[in-house]
Amino acid sequence: MDQGRPYFLCGIGGSGMLPLALILRARGVSVAGSDRALDQGRTAAKFDFLRAQGIALFPQDGSGITGPDLVVVTSAAVETQVPDVQQALAIGAKLVTRAALLADLFNAAPRSIGVAGTSGKSTTTAMIGWILQRDGQDPTVMNGAVMKNFIAPDLPFASALIGKSGLFVSEVDESDGSIAQYAPHIAVLNNIALDHKSLDELRLLFRDFVEKSSVAVLNLDNGETAALAKLRPPEKVISYSLEKRDARLFASDIAPAPDGIAFAVRDAAGGAAIDMRLAVPGRHNVSNALAALGAALAEGLSLEAASRGLGGFAGVRRRLELVGTARDITVIDDFAHNPDKIAATLTTLHDFPGRLLVLFQPHGYGPLKTMKDAFIDAFARHLHEEDVLVMPDPVYFGGTVDRSVTSHDIVQGVEARGRSAYAFSDRLACGDMLASLARPGDRIVVMGARDDTLSQFAAELLARLASG
């Protein structure tokens, strides 16, 4: 980090950029930025919040890049032809990636916990942050999702927590390969599955991430992660499982409920055993909770102290988030965007009665092409016969991309496997279809990532149902 130089974040409203901007601002750095969503008039409340933090916002036309002393930060979603980047190159401003800047901050921390994996990173990061904050550890937390426990009137977009202890907890992303830049003291790895990269690439990235750590918290229920556990000395591993009793942390007596889940957890190393209840539903959240407890143990907390904090965990935004119920039809907003997340969401919801009407908006044409067969398989296996899948076109806010695989291809594959599915180019048409299909007892699930307007869509659909 270049202390004393002003920073300009291109794409400042993004899920990875906004918390980074808050952390920089809290360290006394001058921060400005631009965002395509701002120019397009989307998610105004988010940008009003950033302005309230003393962050100047500019159109994404190069006008905010005012001098060579600027450090211009870009994410993987920002292409080189964006005017801000072109202007930075023209005047000699320093260009760095979001991941490289975050890695610098993370690696400089006296103590660090990096949370990685194909699924569950944001929730596990938030759980760890809440446990440590409740224990008085005063951590800095960098997350890709809004953490409900830290929301306040002056912090509605609480995807970062600013602490003073030198303990840094961060979600670490593998999608662009930037995980290779992080050197955590404690590495948490939830799972490895096909997502943005091939499994061969992912195995290498995650193995190197784990090898850099002093202690690794590893999920034995995932075959790829369990294989990494075998490569580490036992004293450098805290393992966890819902299935394998030889794990250090083992969950049993799992009892799902619509508004949470109860379970027992045993620490084989210390002999402690406790009963827990989470206020967030799903077996996948039991797994996330074990990962968070493992990180807390690695940081020196007792199982009892860690569990006390975790019992009050409120969740993160857009993870099986209840929007509301109208005419006995429930609308749920969910971040699921890869096959594992989709499977976890559908499995959790099928623990309870009610047909599922699922809107899934893919988070890009690239991921859709990479995971086409896996998407089809996830929906075909986890939708029930009476459920319905409705898909609009993938998220696209501009730029160059291969559009050879579309939502229609996914729908055709799901239909061929005996499930009901529809594709529309327009998301409004999807809303019309969902409203026409919905009947009392149904649950409508709005799924997708990289598009903040999905939450607005879910709220508007609920209002439409309420109006009859």
Ordered list of secondary-structure elements with their pairings:
Elements: E1 7-10, H1 17-26, E2 31-34, H2 36-39, H3 44-52, E3 56-58, E4 71-74, H4 83-91, E5 94-97, H5 98-108, E6 111-116, H6 121-134, E7 140-142, E8 160-161, E9 167-171, E10 186-189, H7 199-211, E11 215-219, H8 223-229, E12 237-241, E13 249-257, E14 260-267, E15 273-278, H9 283-298, H10 303-310, E16 321-326, E17 329-334, H11 339-349, E18 356-361, H12 365-370, H13 372-382, E19 388-391, H14 407-416, E20 420-423, H15 427-437, E21 443-448, H16 453-467
Parallel strand pairs: 1-2, 1-4, 2-3, 4-5, 6-9, 6-10, 7-9, 10-11, 11-12, 12-13, 17-21, 18-19, 18-21, 19-20
Antiparallel strand pairs: 7-8, 13-14, 14-15, 16-17
Would you give an account of this structure?
It is built from 16 helices and 21 strands. Helix 13 (372-382) crosses helix 14 (407-416). The longest helix is centred in the middle third of the chain and has 16 residues, at 283-298. The mean pLDDT is 92. Strand 4, helix 4 and strand 5 form a beta-alpha-beta unit. It has 468 residues and is an alpha/beta fold. The chain has a 10-stranded mixed β-sheet, sandwiched between helices.
